[in-house]
Amino acid sequence: MDMKKFILLITVMTVLASCGSKDRGELVGVKGKKWHPEKPYGMQLIPGGSFIMGKADDDLAGVHDAPAKTVTVRAFYMDETEITNSEYRQFVHWVRDSIVRMKLAVLADEVGLVPEDGGIGEYAFKDADTANMSVYEKYMFENYTGLGPTGYEGRKINHDVDLIFDTAEYPDEYYTEVMDTMYLPLEESYNGQRTWDVKKFKFQYNYMDIQEAARNRSVKRKDVILKEEIEIYPDTTVWIRDFAYSYNEPMHNDYFWHDAYSDYPVVGVTWQQAKAFCEWRTINKNSYQKSKRGSAMVNRFRLPSEAEWEYAARGGLQAATYPWGGPYTKSDRGCFMANFKPVRGDYAADQALYTVEAKSYEPNDYNLYNMAGNVSEWVNASYDASSYAYISTINPSVNDEDNKRKIVRGGSWKDVAYFLQVSSRDYEYADSARSYIGFRTVQDYMGTQVTKNSNNK
Question: What domain range is 158 assigned to?
Answer without folding.
Answer: 88-200
